[in-house]
UniProtKB/TrEMBL annotation:
Record-annotated Tripartite ATP-independent periplasmic transporters DctQ component domain positions: 29-159
Organism: Falsiruegeria litorea R37
UniProt keyword GTP-binding, yes or no: no
Transmembrane segments: 20-40, 52-70, 91-112, 132-151
Transmembrane is among the record's keywords: yes
Chief location of this protein within or outside the cell: membrane
PANTHER family: 2,3-DIKETO-L-GULONATE TRAP TRANSPORTER SMALL PERMEASE PROTEIN YIAM, TRAP TRANSPORTER SMALL PERMEASE PROTEIN
GO BP, one annotated term: C4-dicarboxylate transport
Keywords: Cell inner membrane, Cell membrane, Membrane, Transmembrane, Transmembrane helix, Transport
Protein name: TRAP transporter small permease protein
Pfam families found in the cross-reference section: DctQ
Topology in the lipid bilayer: Multi-pass membrane protein
Protein location: Cell inner membrane
Length: 176
């Protein structure tokens, strides 16, 4: 069981780190907006600021997905889960986590290929900044992989322990 505790600690650390990085991306967006405002007031030009803000927004979104899942902030299938009985709820939950994990792993596989080809062809943004696109795309893949790991983690925990690890589930159960 020591190995599993160590793995749990590593996974929780990865989820927390991605959450912190997502927050730092949001702070970077704020800094870019403020710098762009200062540049306008001083009649200077800050080329590429909107593009970098968009890159940081995508990074914040993808890096924050796993943390949002772990805190119960994702929209889940609560209508369906509330409509079925307690015995069936577990199987529907397993099915939902399995399908979600499969879809996200599929996305990660193809997004990884997309990043590779952007790097291979030296694809750059068409804006003034000329950023190599594989850099912001890589953050998208990293965030996607962390989400896929989190979904798989919840799925396995649900199968073997009988409950997922979402800290605050917004699904209300009906008392019969």
């Amino acid at each position: 069981m020591g190995v599993l505790r160590g793995l749990r600690a590593v996974l929780d650390y990865i989820y927390r780190l991605s959450e912190i990085l997502a927050a730092l991306c949001m702070i970077a967006i704020l800094a870019l907006i403020l710098l762009q405002m200062l540049a306008r007031w001083s009649s200077e030009v800050f080329p590429g600021a909107p593009e970098y803000a968009a890159y940081f927004m995508a990074a914040a979104s993808f890096l924050g997905f796993a943390a949002a899942l772990n805190r119960g902030s994702h929209i889940r299938v609560s209508l369906l889960l509330n409509a079925v009985g307690p015995g069936m709820k577990r199987y529907v939950d397993i099915w939902c986590f399995a399908v979600s994990a499969a879809v996200v792993w599929y996305f990660c596989w193809h997004a990884r290929q997309f990043v590779f080809w952007s790097w291979k062809f030296n694809d750059v943004s068409q804006a003034q900044d000329k950023t190599a696109l594989w850099i912001p795309q890589s953050v998208m893949v990293i965030g996607g992989v962390i989400l896929a790991i989190a979904l798989t983690d919840h799925l396995l925990h649900l199968i073997f322990k009988g409950e997922h690890r979402i800290q605050h589930d917004n699904v209300e159960t009906q008392e019969v």
